[in-house]
Amino acid sequence: MSADPALLDASSTAAAVRGGRLDRGEVFEFWRERAASDDLGSYLWVADGPDGAAGDGPLGGVPVAVKDLFCVEGVPSTSASRILDGYRPPYTSTAVSRLRSAGAPVLGKTNQDEFAMGSSTENSGYGPVRNPWDTERVPGGSSGGSAAAVAAGTAPWAIGTDTGGSIRQPASLCGIVGMKPTYGAVSRHGMIAFASSLDQCGPLTRTVTDAALLMSALVGHDPLDSTSLEHPEGIRLPTAERLDGLRVGVWGLEEEGLAPGVADLVRQAIGSIESLGGAVSEVDLPHASHGISAYYVIAPAEASANLARYDGVRYGLRSEQSDLLSMYEQTRHDGFGEEVRRRIMIGTYALSSGYYEAYYGTAQKVRTRIVEDFRTAFADVDLVVTPVSPTVAFRLGERTADPLSMYLSDYYTVPFSLAGLPAISIPCGLSEGLPVGLQLAGPPFSESRILDAAHALEAELGFEGLPRS
Amino acid sequence: MNGARAYEPVIGVEIHVQLRTRTKMFCGCELAFGRPPNELTCPVCLGHPGTLPVTNAEAVHLALMIAMAFECEIADRSVFHRKNYFYPDNPKGYQVSQYDIPLARSGRLGEVRIHRVHLEEDAAKLVHSGASGRIHGAEGSVVDFNRAGTPLVEIVTEPDIASGAQAAEFGRLLQATLRRMGVSDVNMEEGSLRMDANVSIRPAGEATLGTKTELKNMNSFRFLERGIAAEIERQEAVVRGGGAVEQETLHFDPRSGAITSLRSKEEAHDYRYFPEPDLVPIAPTRTMLERARSALPELPAARAERFERELELPAAAAKLLAFRSGLGDFLERAVAAGAAGARPIANWVTNELPARLGDRDPADTALHPAALAELVALVESDDVSHSAAKEVLDELLESGGDPAAIVESRGLGRAGSDELEQIVERAMADQAEAVEKIRAGNDKAIGAVVGVVMRETKGRADGGEVQRMIRERIGA
User: Fold this and answer.
1) CA A464 and chain centroid, separation
2) Measured between alpha carbons, how far is A230 from B19 in angstroms, rounded to an integer?
3) Domain that holds residue B376
4) pTM of the predicted model, to two decimals?
5) What pLDDT, in 10s, does the model give residues A418-435?
6) CATH numeric code, A5-245+381-461
7) Which of A222, A404, B249, B432 is 20 to 30 Å apart from A113, CA to CA?
8) With contacts defined as CB-CB under 8 Å, which chain A residues touch B54?
9) Which of the residues A42, A124, A166, A304 is marked catalytic?
10) Shortest CA gap B211–chain A (Å)
11) Min Cα separation A138/chain B (Å)
12) Buried b (16+ CB within 10 A) or exposed e, B435-449
């Protein structure tokens, strides 16, 4: 070998493989061994060998860690739920198929909050994931396994899903890059659904360039997902070094729950934007602060229907009982964790006759207002910048007894989810020795502009991740 | 009614029609009836995790045709909803259906207004083992997902129907119309056409509606008619007895005539409808609308009217010919051949063909429409007797050919007068006793002589003519 994959970012490894300086089989084995040595609970399954990924694709044979909720034919895919114990799908998700045909085999399936419901990966049916920066702390969630694996160097890169912040928040808490694309940019076919109108697949990576490379393989219309769209601009690999003329709107730095250490680092990053030539102003998003309330009606409502198929009849867990209703009840009691059951109940209630308008109807109106807020804001600014998580990584168990405090982890990420907008989290420093993320978001399909800005800022901020070797 | 108040029934029907598409509503599985269980399935219609629906464009096309046939207003953007309920025949735990914005509204078929037309997916089929054959008391149940995801159009009428007979009549018109359009097999036994009825009664002349009950899944028009009649009778008895009709879902057992409750209002589901986030609205383009419009054939009601007007056919014959489009098509081709008039041809097509073919389409036989017209012309010109012509028809249906040639080769032409005179005289000599009786005034005895003549001529003689010849000779 003429280069050490541990010291390279994934896109450089891919380039080295494609240039013949690294062997793709050795690269796979290198990462397979590292994945197998994971001691953070990041993985639920690690591949034995490279699957049938294309030999000459742009992803250069660099294997990708895949959040458990992506269906991969013949590979355990449970969305970290006991109700899908032993379930091996008969088909493969479009996201994974696209990565394979672009040259990236599946490295393993990563741990997550059950059905992507959570912000700490403590809600997994298969045990929690620990943050590699401090193993007493959570990696964030729900894509906590993917984030921890990339941060700890047991995966070169990964994909996850983001419904209300499930890529960006764990990326922030683990000091890596995470991007949620525009809703519809990446096919949801084969993603075990949490909330269909919000779920999006995206990359978790060491660098902005790695994120862009994975994104370029993932986006595109899929005839198997009616809500997917051809990306009008496509994804360009970022090259920007300056932000001259970029109009950036800042939101949410005066919020009460924002930790001072996080606020300081975000302000410093905003200073860097200005020193790179960006024009910074405050932006008014009058309804964004209601995002969490609307989100915790809409997402559980959709989830209550999406999770109805886990009934013990066709696949997964079945708790045998003498009659049908008892079988349903026992199976779903045994198979679902507490948070999942809580959200099914919230969602069922919100959709019930007599309550629908007050809850679901009102939440949809708030969602529309938030979409309009952003439309207005993006008339004046090119990008919006906010914190990602109001705090650094919290301790395991710290918020499990208080769902509301857990839900507030998504305060800054949820408005963009509700509006279907693309947003990236990049690390901007350490507070109390723990990573802090900065969120950059733009109008629909502005991924390449976001990635360019993040690329320039990444170099300026010079954040050092955890050493890998 | 001895001073008792008269009640009038108010009935609306809901019809589910399985569309005749090649594949299912939201996946690419083939559609076919009677295949081995669970052969026509995939991860989508089995409700596997992560699967998504994709709307079948052909199903939308057929549904648009139906909406246009009923002269409905078609929505610019209609929305799919999820209808949530747990049942083993419902693989996702929700059915994808339409709710507050259906594909089409406000139409009409015959005398009945159409309230709405919407698209949805069918459930799987539950097969219950055990004596009852129903879920109550079943020893076990298995699920066949071949039917799951079959495209369905649901048609809901306004409560414009006043009797079971009228409901059945409407059902037949609907069936003939959809069959003519080729959008569905409309086979009630196989379940490609299913009808429910909402029944209520109110004091005659009042405007407010009474509480309605829903009669589920009547699998023939006859049972629909009987079920509704029985339910009207039941409701009248309840009200006359001082009770109140309760809102419930009912089952009519055609064997016993009994009506039993499936569930009451209290047990009614809260389906928690909400917009299906996995699908985009149906927004028919001008091209889609034009394609549907141009695919519409002449519909039975219009065709029956035209047959009456243009061909001067009696109403009953016109209707039969329009409802059974195979017969109507055959008639039109026979009339076009020009050999005989529409009315006599229609007599043959509506009487002799169904008597011989049952439900079969005459186009599937060896009989050519022009040949039937020629045969009818031979009868009309008295060259062949009616009964001889029936023999010719049998052969034409079986092996085709030219009617005149068959008449010739089988000697079925009208017996000539010389030949007939000889036969009559022989018969009178043969039946001397009968002839004596006729002379003595016993007119009935003439039958014996006529019978012999007809036997001899193998039916080629005209009975009236033979009688006239006998009487002439007797001088009676």
Assistant:
1) 21
2) 31
3) 300-409
4) 0.88
5) 999 999 999 999 999 999
6) 3.90.1300.10
7) A222
8) 223-226
9) A166
10) 21
11) 27
12) bebbeeeeeebbebb
